[in-house]
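Incident log, support desk, overnight shift.

02:14 A customer reports that sequence design results differ from what the structure should imply. Their input is reproduced verbatim below. On-call engineer (initials T.W.) acknowledged and began investigating.
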């Protein structure tokens, strides 16, 4: 079974990026927002990138080791590193 996840950043993404409200699809804690605020750029874009990287991580975890071709996951931009 395959399950695709996507969003259209040109459409209304408020349910993905809103924090401090009950209508948000993701939990954005004060700590999350503080960490994202340390990076340059638009907060909404940073949140959408974080969501995309979360989905990338989920996909990587679902793949069998032999089928995983990712050698550099994108979430390194948020300070997450894989130690080997």
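02:41 Re-run completed on a clean worker. Output:
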């Amino acid at each position: 079974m395959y399950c695709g996840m996507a969003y259209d950043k040109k459409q209304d993404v408020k349910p993905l990026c809103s924090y401090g409200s009950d209508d948000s699809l993701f939990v954005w804690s004060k700590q999350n927002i503080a960490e994202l605020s340390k990076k340059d750029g638009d907060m909404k874009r940073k949140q959408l990138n974080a969501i995309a990287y979360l989905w990338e991580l989920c996909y990587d975890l679902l793949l069998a080791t032999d089928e995983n071709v990712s050698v550099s996951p994108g979430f390194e931009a948020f300070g997450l590193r894989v130690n080997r």
